[in-house]
Design goal:
Distance between the termini: 48 Å
Number of helices: 10
Number of strands: 14
Largest sheet: 7 strands, mixed
Oligomer: single chain
Helix content: 25-40%
Mean pLDDT: 95
Radius of gyration: 23 Å
Strand content: 15-25%
Shape: elongated
Low-confidence stretches: none
Length: 371
């Protein structure tokens, strides 16, 4: 079967985690760059990656790459790509994208040129003057970087962070894909005990359960490419069945959450139920000043942080109280994400390891304590 070049964007700082995930599901010829990984696979890999990858933001087909310093080059470059391999006669193919450090800097103009070229190519291939675009959505995405245009086809639809279990969230949620990466870096295993004293909407606890029990991140949702005629339905059915077979129901994993906000407690319980892991997670209303991690537990948390001076001081007071309650070491490791560069000072202990991550547009450090 002919190989397909795929590309998965991810949070900056999680490239190594995603690389391991892609290798685990059989991705080949990996190329890692900042914030994304390209690799080879077949049509089954499109389904497998969407269903199983926990830290990827989406799964894109890499259609082609070419130099484009002029609109003529952009048009001709798109005309040379075999779009008909994945886009049918009646399929919809809207265009979106971005341009950075390139001569072609107008995104609307680039969109228009790419759309015209795609229409001309597909019109010729299907021998029609007008493409009705009433069929399945095939979202084209372009990225023009330093005068090189790469054209992608999105197979995912709504971002992979939308697992299907979090319909509502609290004021400062952490993205599921970032949470999954943090959980992986915290070395959560099938027999781990995990706790979060600031559980919020329960994302870190739920992603820990998914990791420990080998529950596929996308098992509860559908994907854009499922509606494509180009990928047989039995491919999706087979990959889902294989993913379900790998779930480890015998895992002894347990998680304990706490939050001072009763709404957050209810939200965590509700989301855990939707995620199918409520039997593994216990949550209670509790101030961090009274929190004690269970024996041998890994503490994973995203403490509140402030943007205004008063809020920052309140957050730093929380860091101090958290440090007084945790005392992390090799038997009680802790992994904490925070944008505060002075976190260690207030927590009272220097991290054994730090890793730069981005929570949305906010630059953070992941402070890891395991010695």
């Amino acid at each position: 079967m002919e190989k397909i070049r795929l590309c998965c964007p991810c949070h900056f700082g999680l490239e190594s985690v995603l690389k391991f995930e892609i290798k685990k599901i059989g991705g080949e010829n990996l190329n890692v760059t900042d914030g994304k990984i390209s690799f080879d696979g077949d049509e089954g890999m499109i389904a497998r990656a969407n269903i199983n990858l926990a830290t990827a933001e989406r799964v894109l087909i890499e259609l082609g790459s070419f130099r484009a310093e002029t609109f003529e080059q952009l048009f001709d470059g798109v005309m040379d790509i075999e779009l008909e391999r994945f886009i049918g006669k009646t399929d919809a193919f809207p265009v979106k994208g971005h341009s950075l450090s390139s001569k072609l800097h107008s995104v609307p103009h680039c969109q228009s040129i790419i759309k015209k070229a795609a229409c001309k190519r597909l019109g010729k291939k299907y021998a029609v003057e007008w493409l009705e675009e009433t069929g399945a959505l095939h979202q084209l995405q372009f990225n023009i970087m330093k005068d090189v245009c790469t054209l992608y086809l999105d197979t995912t639809g709504a971002g992979l962070h939308k697992r299907g279990y979090r319909q509502t969230s609290n004021a400062a949620p952490i993205k599921e894909t970032l949470a999954a990466g943090i959980v992986d870096l915290a070395r959560v295993r099938a027999d781990s005990v995990v706790c979060d004293p600031f559980c919020g909407s329960g994302t870190l606890l739920i992603e820990s359960a998914y990791k420990a029990m080998s529950i596929p991140a996308g098992i509860r949702r559908s994907f854009s490419a499922q509606r494509w005629d180009q990928i047989p339905q039995d491919v999706w059915q087979d990959e889902r069945a294989a993913a379900l077979e790998r779930i480890n129901k015998q895992a002894s994993f347990k998680a304990y959450g706490a939050d001072i906000d009763p709404f957050a407690v209810d939200l965590t319980l509700m989301n855990a139920k939707k995620a199918g892991v409520s039997s593994r997670i216990t949550v209670r209303e509790q101030d961090v000043g009274k929190f004690t991690p269970p024996e041998g537990a890994i503490t994973i948390c995203n403490p509140p942080y402030g943007e205004r001076m008063l809020e920052i001081k309140q957050a730093q007071e929380l860091y101090k109280r958290l440090g007084e309650r945790l005392h992390p070491d090799s038997s009680r490791p802790a992994v904490i994400i925070s944008p505060d560069e002075e976190f260690e000072q207030f927590f009272g202990k220097r991290a054994d390891k730090k890793r730069k991550l981005y929570n949305g547009m906010i630059k953070c450090n992941l402070y890891m304590y395991f010695k």
